[in-house]
Amino acid sequence: MSAVGKTTNILEDVRRHLAPTDDILAEARARRARVLDAARAHGGARDTYYSGSIAHGTANSDLDADCGVVLDRRRYPTLGPEGDGEGSKEIVSEFRDSVAQRLREDDERVDVRVTKRRAIRAKFNSDVDGFDPSVDLVVALERSHQPGVWIPNLPEDGWDPAHPAEHTRLFASGSKTLVRVRARAVRLAKGWNQQYKRPGLSSFNIEALAWECVEESMSEGEALHEIFAYGAKQLAGHDTDDPARVSGPIRRLIDRDEVVKRLENAAGLMQRALDADGVDDDEAQETLSELFWKYVVPPAGSSNKSAFAARLRTGEGVRVGATGLTLGSGTNLKRTRSYGDAESR
Known about the structure:
Blueprint: H1 6-18, H2 22-42, E1 45-51, H3 52-56, E2 65-71, H4 89-106, E3 111-114, E4 120-123, E5 135-142, E6 149-153, E7 158-162, H5 164-171, H6 176-193, H7 203-213, H8 220-237, H9 256-276, H10 281-291, H11 305-314, E8 318-321, E9 324-327
Parallel strand pairs: 2-5
Antiparallel strand pairs: 1-2, 3-4, 4-5, 5-6, 6-7, 8-9
């Protein structure tokens, strides 16, 4: 495969299209710091940590900032399975009220709520480059005799084992080349996944699959193909294991058969694009316009019935014009363009 072929150039353009601006990243990190400062001020915290896509280097523009506060067992000896079995709901509500009060002292627009499953979410209701990064704070409890922490399971008023610090270490492990190609392929795979009205996988699931299968010798396109192909094979049999081997398997967002079907189709399209790279530029662009239907338009003069079909399946990226259905550019990100839109380049 040519290192500078059309497929390579299009993937780089899509990745830049998805990437957060420096201002978005800076604001997300600043908001994360404010939330952690508010959590520390409540007292009883032994440590804090960063987690999620920003910490892992895999953030796209539609990011939020993930972090956690680890409680001191001497302050909360009754909490959790290794204490007196006290549940998670009360302490999470307590921290929510405290964090909300402190954040609203500086900005009354901030809305702080508890999510359905485990986190305290702070929404700031203030856009930066068209995005409004929220912050998810997890109130965690140190595990006494095993790696990781206990994190809230709010529906059951209980605690689940997890190891977010190990996830961050693992996703940053390997040579600089491996870390870079893995992160870039993950960002592309996440962008593909988010095109659907109902994404099939969580971002963490995609990261875990990439950690298992991407190799240093792969190009960006080859790594993306491997995530699709490997993911389809693995998920056909079982859900993805926790990379840290602390939590249970990672939950799918939709039906297994549908996830596998999407991944198999994506793997086939990506292989076609790789085969066309440096050989047939129009074929490469046309194939990638089906894979990334929100971000890549077909080459001039192409009917690309497959791209129409892909967009119609999801109900996105299609608009009705004077001459009937036409392909749209999809959701705008950071005032950028779809690849192949010459007027906006």
